[in-house]
Amino acid sequence: MKRFRNWFNSRSKKKRVALIASPILVLLIVVSKPWTTPSSGRVLAEGENLGVFETSQSRSSEDPFKFDSAHTRRFVIRKIEAFGPGVLDHFPPDCGPNTCETSPPDKLPIVVIWTDPELRCGDTAEDFEACTDPLTNQCGLLAEVFPEPPTYIWWRRDSAGHRKPQMCAYFDIASDQYVMGFVTDVAPSKRLSLVVQRRDVPIRLQP
User: pLDDT value at position 166?
Assistant: First the structure.
């Protein structure tokens, strides 16, 4: 210990400061890394155009998910990711630790679909609401009270041959993209299918 102290004191003041600061800097990097590194999922598909779907906001009190072809908004699917249980700490995946409002369940997988909205979604407040309201309702509490989810993914059928839907549970905006999150009971298949507002959406997945 005495030998180390003598060696340390023989260094210049600048070098002594650097020796003291280096371990602290390394510790800060190690501690902050989990907070700044986004969760990474298994990419099922990614491309310029994996598929296109439309949504609309129905004013009907009896069926708020009824599709109104006269007032639609168009979205292009860019990426589909699958996250295992507990992998995705926050939703959407790219949000920071101080901006996330949603924490997905840590015991179930989740599939995340990234989309590009049409340009007019950012023109006015009215256009913005026309783009966000349908997906907010279809991926939120309003959809949970209906017997059949309006927006879901599926890849299995039950013994009677009916689809086993995995409901859209989250919707948010991240990196200028509209992001939907689907909580699933098991790990998803690479050949999953998508339904948006009760309409089948053809999607192109990687073989």
Answer: 94
Residue 170: φ, ψ to 5°: -135, 145
Say if pTM beats, i.e. exceeds, 0.70.
Answer: yes
CA dist 64 → 58, 67, 173 (Å): 5, 9, 22
Which residue do the tokens 């949000």 mark? 95
The pLDDT tens digits of the residues spanning 117-139 come to 999 998 899 999 999 999 998 99
* Residue at 1: amino acid letter: M
d(CA 83, CA 89): 10
Q: Which H or E run includes 44?
A: strand 42-56
DSSP label at residue 16: H
152 three-state secondary structure? strand
Helix (H, G, I), strand (E, B) or coil at 114: strand
Cα Rg, the chain, nearest whole Å: 24
d(CA 144, CA 103): 18
For residue 92, pLDDT beyond 60: yes
Angle at the Cα of 67 from the Cα atoms of 75 and 132, rounded to 5 degrees: 45
